[in-house]
Write a sequence for this structure.
């Protein structure tokens, strides 16, 4: 297929390092083109965060071209034809023209080097990423109508989507990710192929699936991306707890659509993120993902009463366990797993505050149990209100405003976020005359509960109360 060549709309936006490198390759008798995302982002008016290049040079030839020019070089991707390098504060990658494919049972792509730019572009995932800018001449090569599709906000593949997804099934996840990041619509034939081939995503490593999921959740339109995963059946393979939220509603509609509710909570949580200097800078994956999965315990806990009323008793506890299990399967790090599952576990804690009120002790426990998740929990709890009943929404919002004010007042008075017993382990052992062991742990918990229930007592009163407790408990 012949390539369409036009000038880019803003040549000044091209990084001078790219032009410099293009001249070096041309002087050495090789082709070099800026390719993929950086070219797409030029048309979107976005800064290119990565500089990716493709060339007819082999990895060895690339190393010779950049010798003495690059400040650092790394060859970790050499087997895939990629040489990474740094020039000043700019990092970039140069990859030999290539094609990659999976066999029926493989989790890793098989790499074959290509011989032309046009062939390399044909093997790329989507037309909007199958554009290249030849360097240093600055001709745009767009053989598959990427510019047109970008303007139309549609996602298509250069060739048949079935062939593209067979070559690399992760591209189906990328389609959903781009739907979220770029707010584009997936072409009908692409969606059909994703649906037909959804099971093939199972051969892709959990780590690669996880990385695409994170990018999707952190995109501009995460609801759109998640809905595409669910609608095509991909979520049933990689995140089955989410499509399971599509519970059948009873004939009297006594509970809301849990799946649609969860998507709305996801959207609202993203809207409550702070700026870059705030407590929860956008985009925050942990908050957004907790919002999406906060109700995944409901299908397992749904019960119908004699009057037909629906309950989901302890769904937050069940949901936290399901969330942690799924995130471990997707190879998330332990800190992220703990944060998200803790948010899911605590998301119901607030309810009832507005009706019954909480003692200072209950407020302290809320803060202690949330720990570093407190600011995210504030936002998740607020986002979880999706009722159309304006009075209910106003009542819950006012109640949470009151809770946050009380937390701020107590925190200022007591440094609440660092609540500790007034005697540490060494002091407990000295007062009670006991060695390290279970007794010290029991005494510590007693003093912590005392601190949470009654606030600061002072070390002398804490010691007196500890001795009184020990006289009865030991």
């Amino acid at each position: 297929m012949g390539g369409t060549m036009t000038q880019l709309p803003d040549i000044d936006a091209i990084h001078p390092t790219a032009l410099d490198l293009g001249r070096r390759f041309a002087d050495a008798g090789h082709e070099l083109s800026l390719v993929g995302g950086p070219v797409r982002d030029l048309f979107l008016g976005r800064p290119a965060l990565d500089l990716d290049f493709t060339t007819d040079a082999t990895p060895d030839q690339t190393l010779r071209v950049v010798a003495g020019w690059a400040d650092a070089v790394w060859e970790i991707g050499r087997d895939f034809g990629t040489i990474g390098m740094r020039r000043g504060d700019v990092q970039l990658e140069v990859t030999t023209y290539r094609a990659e494919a999976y066999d029926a049972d493989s989790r890793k792509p098989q790499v074959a080097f290509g011989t032309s730019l046009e062939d390399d572009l044909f093997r790329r995932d989507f037309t909007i990423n199958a554009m290249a800018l030849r360097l240093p001449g600055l001709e745009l090569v767009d053989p598959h109508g990427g510019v047109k599709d970008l303007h139309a906000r549609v996602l298509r593949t250069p060739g048949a989507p079935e062939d593209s997804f067979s070559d690399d099934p992760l591209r189906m996840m990328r389609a959903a990710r781009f739907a979220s990041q770029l707010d584009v619509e997936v072409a009908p034939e692409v969606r059909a192929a994703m649906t037909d081939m959804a099971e093939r995503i199972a051969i892709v490593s959990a780590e690669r699936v996880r990385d695409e999921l994170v990018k999707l959740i952190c995109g501009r339109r995460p609801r759109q991306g998640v809905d595409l995963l669910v609608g095509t059946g991909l979520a049933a393979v990689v995140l089955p707890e989410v499509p399971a939220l599509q519970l059948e509603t009873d004939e009297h509609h006594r509970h809301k659509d849990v799946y649609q509710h969860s998507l709305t909570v996801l959207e609202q949580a993203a809207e409550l993120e702070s700026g870059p200097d705030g407590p929860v800078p956008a985009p925050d994956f942990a908050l957004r993902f907790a919002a999406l999965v906060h109700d995944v315990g409901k299908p397992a806990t749904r019960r119908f009463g004699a009057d037909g009323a629906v309950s989901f008793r302890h769904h937050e506890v069940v949901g936290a366990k399901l969330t942690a299990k799924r995130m471990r399967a997707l190879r998330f790090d332990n800190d992220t797993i703990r944060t998200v599952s803790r948010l899911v576990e605590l998301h119901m804690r607030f309810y009832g505050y507005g009706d019954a009120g909480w003692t200072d002790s209950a407020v302290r426990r809320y803060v202690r149990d949330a720990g570093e998740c407190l600011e995210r929990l504030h936002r998740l709890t607020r986002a979880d209100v999706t009722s159309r009943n304006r009075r209910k929404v106003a009542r819950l919002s006012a109640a949470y405003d009151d809770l946050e004010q009380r937390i701020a007042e107590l925190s200022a008075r007591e440094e609440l976020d660092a609540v500790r017993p007034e005697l540490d382990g060494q002091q407990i052992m000295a007062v009670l005359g006991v060695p390290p062991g279970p007794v010290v742990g029991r005494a510590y918990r007693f003093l912590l509960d005392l601190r949470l229930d009654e606030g600061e007592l002072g070390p002398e009163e804490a010691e007196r109360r500890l001795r009184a407790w020990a006289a009865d408990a030991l």
